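User: Earlier you gave me the apo prediction for this protein. Now I'd like the version with flavin-adenine dinucleotide bound, so I can compare the two side by side. Same sequence as before, with the ligand SMILES added.
Assistant: Got it. Here's the input I'm using:
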Amino acid sequence: MQREALGGTLVLGGGFAGGYVARQLGRHGATIVSPENFMLYTPILPEAASGTLEPRHVVVPLRMMCPHAEFVLGRAIALDLEHNRVSVETESDLLSIGYRNLVVALGAISRTLPIPGLGEHGLGFKSLADAIYLRNHVLRRLEAASEAATDAERRRELTFVFVGAGYAGVEALAELSDLVRDAMRYYPLLRATPQRWVLVDAAEKILPEIPQRLGEYAAAQLQSRGVEIYTSTTLEGAEAHAVTLSGDNRILTSTLVWTAGVRAHPRLAQLGLPVDERGRIRVDQTLRVEGRDNVWGLGDGARVPNTATPGQFDPPTCQHALRQARRLAKNLSSGASRPYRYRMLGQVATLGRYKGIADVMGLRFRGFPGWFVTRTYGTLGHPQRLADEG
Ligand SMILES: Cc1cc2nc3c(=O)[nH]c(=O)nc-3n(C[C@H](O)[C@H](O)[C@H](O)COP(=O)(O)OP(=O)(O)OC[C@H]3O[C@@H](n4cnc5c(N)ncnc54)[C@H](O)[C@@H]3O)c2cc1C
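And here is the structure of the complex with flavin-adenine dinucleotide:
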């Protein structure tokens, strides 16, 4: 079946980048194609995993967020650049949607490595389903521990290994350890069993995105709570009840959480657009795909040059995706070609309930003030807030 994009703009992907482009285009209209009818607000996904927040608070329906856009639940599967059409697979149909301007924002997927056992035993942490699964998995470990026949088994069930010490891994570990600590009041028999929370990263330090002093504070905070941190360390293998780290360090555990990075969505390479060695679409300073007049790319799936940081490309964060989306929507609605420019105001991260670190406009906060700043600054762009604003 053939149809045309609303207002001439077709947006592929309803995440931070695509969702905000469609929202900012406002009455100009757009058609969004995405396999989910909601946008996931990932910075608070760890809180959904721990149960501090309800899952419904982490998502916002795209129809609510983008009231002037049209929404198609489906996946882009092919692109005909010559005739300006995209093939979209929906639950019941194959659509061909025509466009004047195409915005490609398919984001990234978890990057897995060919490590023996990782595919079978590693748990991902990227989607709402992952967060809910992880929460249930951790709570099931407490049940398994209380039924364990031996002390060794009990210790194994209360050992949790997280590989990848970026935002997702650190925040998920901190939140879930708070969840387990709180749940312990219902498991009196387990209180005497020591828990192990292990954080592993191949890099030299945790949270490489934030300034060194704050990163060191975060590491010290986690260590004071008993978290074992292994930097410059890699995962070598995983089994159902054990992981092996470099240096022949074998840890008995039934929980391996893998948050060691993302890679551009593989569909991007299949669409026939120019991509770099990491599979990201190559775009110029106005977010225009190299060699194309009416195709635009942004977000985690694009290699975006930033005129505020010459020679560097934007990191995969929602702060950047949001600012790129604003620039692109302004250019598309005004017909201008102004270059994208964004200087980050700060970085924030939570370290469990009421604890956090923040570096905003040169001011550094830790502990409760850090958490407070994280939760106010970090949710400025929350789609629910934006949707409420109308
Ligand atoms: C657990 C976690 C915590 C994070 N925490 C932070 C944080 O605290 N701060 C921060 O700045 N960043 C954080 N990030 C990173 C942030 O989520 C990303 O940078 C941001 O989501 C990128 O936006 P995007 O639109 O490019 O990709 P996404 O938000 O991933 O959106 C991509 C969209 O494309 C859709 N799609 C995929 N395939 C197709 C297809 N074939 N056709 C149509 N649509 C398709 C997807 O369903 C999705 O809706 C976190 C990420 C994770 C996973």
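For your comparison, keep in mind: The CA atoms of residues 79 and 331 lie 23 Å apart.
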